[in-house]
TrEMBL record:
This is Nicotinate-nucleotide--dimethylbenzimidazole phosphoribosyltransferase. SUPFAM superfamilies: FMN-dependent nitroreductase-like (SSF55469), Nicotinate mononucleotide:5,6-dimethylbenzimidazole phosphoribosyltransferase (CobT) (SSF52733). The gene is cobT. It catalyses: 5,6-dimethylbenzimidazole + nicotinate beta-D-ribonucleotide = alpha-ribazole 5'-phosphate + nicotinate + H(+). GO terms for molecular function: nicotinate-nucleotide-dimethylbenzimidazole phosphoribosyltransferase activity; oxidoreductase activity.
Length: 577
């Protein structure tokens, strides 16, 4: 027979300590930790599994205040540097967060890894040297759980330059610091991570991270496998009628003439219906995701810009030198750059999310731009991006895109869904002369004749004439809608993607706000078809999320007004007869 499991109550105790372990930075008490308690906790740490049984950890127990002050100074400097690096919307939130309790706790414990311990032939470490610090991290988890059972709080501090910390603590040079832990008795253990309580992050559901047999085949044990798109579509729901009703009621009672905030009243009601609460939270922090992709149809001479410019502009976004960066800095948003299908290889750079589905689409005047499978994969890239940005705490998703020749693809998509003639929806993109424009219209017309895309098969439309960034934008919109997060649409490519998203899931539109109207004729046609009114109309035709970024403060103002403007009864203002 199999070895027996623990009895039910013991099992529950194990799961309880796992569930109720918390990282603590607030509410520490100064009570000393008795020797026998500390010993039990260290014993638990020392019982951890380790690579080749090398037991690579050491525990440095620090109570001395002067030492802790030195370490605290290092952490403060790193905190300042980190705060400096944040977008404004995030920095505001970060200011409220405590990230260490070095001086508030009676005991600090440094956990190290010795990469030489166990000798040259440590079993399992030969191929993966990182197994030594991983083993020490397991010791930390054991310590953390045992401490929780003792009623001791633990706070892990990683705001250090690791080598600086080794020096400050006078540790042997060959050791690596794995963890710096602040330990002490606490007033309480919060039910949720402090970062969740502060709206800094959200929990990812287990279902997002379990795959069966092959990556992307999602299923919790006992469930039928499904893909990311169907999982996402299942969660897209209409605006909440109750919150919408409350929003209209509240608008009437706000100290202003009814209707005087025009479109902003509609936006704030939409935010209520979306978040199921009235008033809604101000959608901050926000992030713009810029999906980049190249286009085979570039070969047809539809733009004077060389294809390499897509990759070069990606580098510019990452370097902070583009218009989107300036606007994002102005409105405090994060810029997230995703390679959905740039033709060239892009060097790994901080801030670049490498998700290339294929190096550019094929020329859709000759055959399909991509396979259905590739279109679906690019949609998944967009869903994943939306999930990441929202669980990282963003309360609004802005669309952005970069792809030389992508207005040709946008025009073709818009023509399919609006049934308008290619000549009416094909614009001048980045600026083309009459001759190139005429060729571009012909290219779109030819592609539509070749593929006869069927608007009732939106993924087929994407595969035939779409771009990888369009497909990713579709996923991003659907992902945002599934998490009931507002999606502020940028220009013509976002308009084309929204038409496709709506064809896949009509309710997805409930999450969409048209940030602006670009001077591309196809964009106006798309917005009309979608029934969306743009917030800003300034003849922009740049892309990169610039129009959506400009609209962000308008959307935030709509929410803020609903939250902060007094009601007639509360302010003692007489209403009109
Ligand atoms: C490797 C690691 C490093 C961490 N570094 C810090 C830190 O520097 N400052 C901090 O406040 N919390 C830090 N934490 C705590 C996490 O923020 C915390 O574990 C997470 O928010 C989940 O909350 P919970 O541990 O209460 O479940 C760290 C956690 C880990 C695992």
């Amino acid at each position: 027979p199999a070895a027996p499991a623990y009895p039910e109550t013991d099992r529950e105790a194990v799961h309880r300590v796992i569930r109720e372990r918390r990282d603590i930075r607030n509410g520490f008490r100064s009570d000393p930790v008795p020797h026998e308690v500390l010993l039990r906790v260290l014993e638990a740490a020392h019982t951890a599994p380790s690579v080749g049984h090398s037991q690579p950890w050491d525990f440095l127990v620090i109570k001395n205040e002067a030492t802790r002050r030195r370490v605290h100074e290092l952490a403060e400097a790193q905190r300042d540097a980190y705060a400096q690096s944040l977008p404004k919307g995030r920095a505001k939130q970060f200011k409220e967060l405590k990230i260490e309790a070095i001086l508030d706790t009676p005991v600090n414990i440094v956990v190290t890894a010795d990469p030489t311990r166990g000798g040259r032939h440590t079993l399992g470490r030969h191929s993966q040297p990182q197994m030594a610090p991983y083993s020490s991290a397991l010791a930390v988890e054991n310590l953390w759980l045992a401490a929780r059972a003792e009623g001791l709080g633990v706070g892990w501090v990683s705001f250090f330059d690791e080598r600086e910390l080794v020096q400050a603590l006078d540790l042997p040079e060959h050791l690596e610091v794995v963890a710096y832990l602040c330990v002490g008795y606490v007033d309480e253990f919060p039910g949720e991570p402090e970062l969740v309580q502060h709206g800094w992050s959200k929990r990812r559901p287990l279902a997002w991270v379990v795959h069966e047999e092959s990556y992307g085949r999602r299923a919790l044990p006992g469930e039928d496998p499904h893909d990311l798109l169907s999982e996402t579509l299942e969660r897209i729901r209409p605006l909440d009628a109750k919150a919408l009703g409350e929003a209209w009621e509240r608008q009437k009672r706000m100290t202003k003439p009814a209707g005087s905030l025009g479109m902003l009243e509609i936006i704030s009601a939409q935010l209520c219906g979306l978040s199921r609460q009235c008033p809604p939270a101000v959608p901050e922090p926000a992030a713009v995701a810029i999906f980049a992709g190249d286009h085979g149809v570039h070969a047809q001479g539809v733009t004077p810009w060389p294809q390499e410019v897509t990759g070069q502009m990606v580098a510019n976004f990452l370097g902070g030198g583009a218009v989107c960066n300036a606007f994002a800095a102005q409105v405090g948003a994060e810029v997230c750059v995703v390679d959905a299908g740039v033709a060239g290889e892009l060097p790994a750079t901080p801030g670049l999310v490498p998700r290339k589905v294929r190096p550019g689409t094929a020329d859709f005047t000759q055959g399909p731009a991509m396979s259905r499978e590739e279109a679906l994969r690019a949609i998944e890239v967009g869903i994943d991006t939306a999930r990441d940005l929202v669980t990282a705490g963003n309360k609004a998703l802005l669309t952005g895109e970069m792809g030389i020749a992508n207005t040709t693809s946008s025009a073709a998509i818009i023509s399919v869904f609006t049934e308008m003639d290619p000549a009416e929806v094909t614009g001048r993109g980045t600026g083309i002369n009459d001759e190139t424009h005429a060729r571009k219209v012909d290219v779109v017309r030819h592609a539509l004749e070749l593929h006869r895309p069927d608007p009732s098969d939106p993924i087929g439309v994407l595969a035939a004439i779409g771009g990888l960034e369009h497909a990713a934008l579709v996923g991003y919109i659907l992902g945002g809608a599934s998490m009931r997060t507002p999606v502020i649409l940028d220009g013509v490519s976002a308009g084309a993607a929204a038409l496709i998203a709506r064809a896949i899931a009509p309710e997805a539109l409930a999450a969409c706000i048209a940030g602006h109207r670009s001077s591309e004729p196809g964009h106006a046609a798309a917005l009309t078809k979608l029934g969306l009114r743009p917030l800003i109309d300034l003849d922009l035709r740049l892309g990169e999320g610039t129009g959506a970024l400009l609209a962000l403060p308008v959307v935030q103002s709509a929410a803020r007004a609903m939250r902060e403007v007094a009601t007639f009864d509360a302010a003692g203002v007489t209403e009109k007869n």
